[in-house]
Fold each of these.
Amino acid sequence: MPETTWPDGVIARYLTVGSATVDLTSQLNVMTPPEPFATLAACSGCPASKEFSHWRLVWQPDGGQAEEHHPAAAVTDAHAWAQSHAGTCRAMPRPA
């Protein structure tokens, strides 16, 4: 398989059974620059994608909830989803 250059912003790439790719990218918006607010896993062969927020609701000792920043957990979850999807997706990438 020939080596190809990854598109700008792709932080990880998985090859699917059908030879498409599942790319992980950081999602940015005007509210959080320069820190990403989520990690997106998107398949180039089918419409499947999933966004993993870097913010998690965490229970507090007083019984309430608070949002906490956990980007590493989101990236780990995105990798797991991408690898699972890549292992089963048989959609082929659209020809260039």
Amino acid sequence: MAVAKKPVFVRVAPGISLGYRRNETAGTWVVRVADGKSGAWTKRIGIADDHDESDGHTILTFWEAQILAKATARGNEACTTNRAPMTIEAAARTYLSSLEARNRRTAYDARRRLERLFLPHFGANKVEDLTRRQLEAWRDGLVNVGHDAEKHRRSQDTANRVLSIIKALLNHAISDPSSGLKDDSAWRLVRPFQRVARAREVHFSVEEVVRMLQICDDPSFRDLLIAGFLTGARYGELAACQVRHFDLIGESLHIPSGKTGSRTVILQPSAVTFFQRISSNKPKEAPLLARSDGTQWGASHQVRPMKRVLLAAGLDQTGTFYALRHSYISRAIEAGVPLTVAAENCGTSVRMIETTYAKVLASRRRDFIAVGAPHLADTVAFTNPSQETE
């Protein structure tokens, strides 16, 4: 079946129809019930087993969906067969499927964190059996208890990030009436560690970026570094760009998918020249920035080359490819680019820039006022006119 906004229905009982809606990911089951007044009401009752095996709860076969449709129509959703309690793994699978339909990169990151740090310990557990004490013990177990204060802080920050994903997937599960879940206190009452998040502090000056480019012996990675510094785009955003996304006439680069959705990056002249060079004589569907073998840059492919370049250039080893984005925004602020323009170009918010780059803004505050605040010409005499008349 083709992807469609409206479901296709089949009658399963008098006045009751089961509908299937084909989505880009897993399809969904919908029940339609006649109200006896020439009308009907509809309700989404579950996810189809298109990509995952049925769990008898939120992911249903055609036959299980029929049973639930009839029970829902008769106001007795609890009286369904094969309705095993939802496991955390099933809840995570459903949540990630929904998240992937909205943002594939965010879903990929969430899946990796869950599979590495949470699901091995809790995947087989039932959601309804979770306790606050269990989650707090798991959270505390991620914390580095050594004497290194920075490692301690970073581990707490990591725990907070994973906890936010866990809360999101569990809230997604309880928001579905068919899940049968009623109490969210087990995760709602678990608090994150306070004041452990910290803005990324590593950024590079123009001179440092030039040093990295001069010492980089991989032309394909050098182009990636240049693109990162000239656009402020995230690594994954650049990796997803194809030649067709560069607009020479409009002097812009379209980001097809990013953390905040698609956007258009306005390019300054040197960036236009750079992208014109690397895109010439390439098919429109080819990667705009390809690896040395012509393939697309993938997840984490930039990590090791970045470490080698930083080491060879004698720069801060805690720096990452993201530091190029940090550098772009910092240099733009220093040059007086309006925060709204910088935010739109980088796919973030003015509030985030004000929070993350507070130090840069503070250091430039006097310069901004000196250049942009209202002033009077030097020839104006600051004297009292009445005194001149006397």
